What does this fold into?
Amino acid sequence: MLEKEFYVIAFESTHHALKVESMLKNEFKIEMIPTPREISASCGLSIKFLENIFKDVVKYVKDDVKNVNIYKVKKIGRTKEVNRMDL
It folds into this structure.
């Protein structure tokens, strides 16, 4: 996915990232990516997804996962604007 705007779920552990990926991948179009360096997280893996499934992914994750952070990433030229989403 080479989109200019997308969302990222960041995790505190690799185990957590892999667990959530296995939950989401059968329901939604997601991609496991390296955590963008603009995001502070203990884990180097994040899940990337697009705005069209944002509400569904948030509902799914909020019901089953604790301590998850979701960020909106907007590419502007060579830089990225990153904003944490309030869930």
